[in-house]
């Protein structure tokens, strides 16, 4: 199992753990906009609670990730 946490206003928690023939992934961020900017995904989102729940399927030659992402109470700049 891999687990990481950060404190402060941009609290982040990420967990990857074995599950069956794959791995379960969970990511929570108090500031989803900051996380998306840091990952280079979106630059125009501010704030929001971010939640990702997914699973890697390690049964084949390529480990595919499937799951859901939920972002609530955020603002979009320059829309």
Account of the 3D structure:
The protein has 79 residues and is mostly beta strands. Helices cover 9% and strands 59% of the residues. It has 1 helix and 5 strands, in the order βββαββ. The protein has a 5-stranded antiparallel beta sheet. Strand 2 and strand 3 form a beta hairpin. The chain is elongated and about 40 Å long. The N and C termini lie far apart (39 Å).
Key words describing this protein structure:
single chain, 79 residues, mainly beta, five-stranded antiparallel sheet, 59% strand
Rg estimate, integer Å: 14 Å
Query: Whole-Å distance between the termini?
Result: 39 Å
**SSE string:** EEEHEE
Biggest beta sheet attributes? 5 strands, antiparallel
Q: Tell me, what's the shape?
A: elongated
Number of helices: 1
- Low-confidence residue ranges: none
Structural class: mainly beta
For the largest sheet, list the strands in their spatial order. 1-2-3-4-5
Total strand segments = 5
> What is the helix content?
under 10%
Average of the residue pLDDT scores: 91
Percent of residues in β-strands: over 45%
